[in-house]
C-alpha cells in the first residue's frame, strides 16, 4: 500500500529555547499519525540565520531523531523566504507549515491531515483567539485584513496565518511563483484549489519574544498591499484628478476677481495654503509610485530568494531541489 507522506516545515529564527520543547510534541504527533493513519511524517527545520545557538539545538535534535531534516540559510532572509526555502525541498507528499514558537499547536496536525484526505489542497488554521498578544497587535491585524480584502482581488482569509497544509499539487503551483517580494498569505490565496479552514486557539509563545515589532508589521502590511493590489496607484490618479478640478475652478475665480474687482496684492495666506497642500499631495503620489517602482527594481535584479548554507536531508528524504 502506498503511504502518504507529510513534511512539517518549521522556520526558526533565534528559537533555541522553544525548539527543544516543540520538537517532542511534533514527534509524538507524527508517531501517532504513522501508527494510526498510515502517514509517513518528517520534520524540516529551516534555520533562518539564527545567532543564538538555534543551529546547535537543531543539530542535536537531528542527531537524536532520524526523521529530522535541517536546512540552514546563509543569513537571516525573513520568515517568508525561509518558508519558501523549506517548501522548495518538499518534493514528495504534502507540507504543513508550523511556527517554531509553539503558537500553532502541533496537536492539531491530524485534523489538517484528515481534511487533506477529504480532498482539500489548502487547509489553513484560522485564529479564534490570540493569547498573549497586545491590544495594539490584535487591532492592527484586524484592520490589516479588512484593508487587504477590500483592495485585493486575491482572497486573503482574515485571521489566517501560515499554519497550513498544502497538498502536493498546491505545493507545485506555489513553486512556480518566484517573486522576490513574497507576501505568502496572498500567494496561498492566488493559487486557489480547494480550500478549507480549521478554527484554532493561538497560544502564547513558548519562550522569547515575537520577531515582528510594529515597524516590521507595518512594512509587512505595505508588502501585502503593494504585492496584491495596485489600488493605491489608482487612488493617486483620482486624488490628482480631484485636486486639479478644484484648482482649476479656483483659478478661474481668481482671474475673474482680478479682472472685475481689481486686485490689491493680498492673499498670501491662501497662496501658502494652496502651495503646501498641492506640494503634499504631489509628494504622497510620488511616494506611492516610488513604492511600486522600488519593488519593480527588486524584481528586475532576479536575485535568488535565499541562499543555502547547509542542507542535510533526513533518511529517505530526497536531496533533490526542483
Ligand atoms: N521567523 C523566521 N525568520 C524571521 C522572523 C521569524 O523564520 O526573520 C520565524 C520564527 O522563528 C517563528 C515564525 O517565523 O517560527 C513566526 O515568528 P514570530 O513568532 O516572531 O511571529 P508572530 O507569531 O509574532 O507573528
Ligand atoms: Mg509567534
From TrEMBL:
Location of the protein in the cell: Cell membrane
Family membership noted in the UniProt record: Belongs to the glycosyltransferase 2 family. GtrB subfamily.
Keywords: Cell membrane, Glycosyltransferase, Membrane, Transferase, Transmembrane, Transmembrane helix
Pfam families listed in its UniProt record: Glycos_transf_2
Protein name: Glycosyltransferase family 2 protein
Primary location group: membrane
GO cellular component, one term: plasma membrane
CDD domains: DPM1_like_bac
UniProt keyword Transmembrane helix, yes or no: yes
Organism of origin: Luteimonas granuli
Domain Glycosyltransferase 2-like: 7-171
PANTHER family per UniProt: PROPHAGE BACTOPRENOL GLUCOSYL TRANSFERASE HOMOLOG, UNDECAPRENYL-PHOSPHATE 4-DEOXY-4-FORMAMIDO-L-ARABINOSE TRANSFERASE-RELATED
Classification via InterPro entries: Glyco_trans_2-like (IPR001173), Glycosyltransferase_2 (IPR050256), Nucleotide-diphossugar_trans (IPR029044)
TM regions (residue ranges): 235-256, 268-293
Membrane topology category: Multi-pass membrane protein
Gene3D superfamilies: Spore Coat Polysaccharide Biosynthesis Protein SpsA, Chain A
